[in-house]
Amino acid sequence: MRLRITDPTAIMVDREVAAIRAEDATGSFGILNGHADFLTALDISVVSWRDMDGRAGYCAVRNGILTVSGGKEVAIATREAHVGDDLDELETVVLSRYRERGDAERSGRTSATRLRMRAIRRMVEALQGGPAEIGL
C-alpha cells in the first residue's frame, strides 16, 4: 500500500509499505493492505511503518489527519513532520519540541484573547458612559 505524509511545505514520505502504525485520541492502531476506508485525527506522535523488505521507518507528526482510501492509499496531512531512523530520538527530542511549541502557541492565543476581551470591555464602558479613561 502507498503511504504519503505531507506537511505544509513538503512531501515527507511517499513510499510503498507493508504495514503502518499510528496513534489517535483512542490509542494506537495498525493498518494493513485492504484496510477499510478510515479517517481520524492524529495526536502528537510517531507514525511507524514496515517497508516491503521489512525495514522500519518512523516519522514524528505534530497532529494531523490520517485517511485510508480504497485499502491501498494512506495519506497523513500534518502541521509538522520529522522523518528519522532513531525512534528514541524522535520520541524524546522531536515530540517534546512539538509539545513545547503547542504550549507556547496556546499561551500566545490565551494572551491575545485576554487583550481582546479587555479592549472590548473598555469600549463597552466608554459607550455606556462609564470610566472616561480608555487605557489598555
Structure, described:
By secondary structure, the chain is α+β, with helices and mostly antiparallel strands. Helices cover 30% and strands 44% of the residues. Strands 1, 2, 3, 4, 5, 6, 7, 8 and 9 form a nine-stranded mixed beta sheet that branches. The longest helix has 41 residues, at 87-127. It is elongated, with a radius of gyration of 22 Å. The termini are far apart. This is F0F1 ATP synthase subunit epsilon. It is found in: Endomembrane system.
Short description:
The protein has 136 residues and is α+β, with helices and mostly antiparallel strands. It is built from 1 helix and 9 strands; from the N terminus they run E-E-E-E-E-E-E-E-E-H. The mean pLDDT is 86.
Element layout with pairings:
Blueprint: E1 2-7, E2 10-24, E3 27-32, E4 38-42, E5 45-51, E6 56-61, E7 64-69, E8 73-77, E9 81-84, H1 87-127
Family: Belongs to the ATPase epsilon chain family.
Subcellular location: Endomembrane system
Membrane topology: Peripheral membrane protein
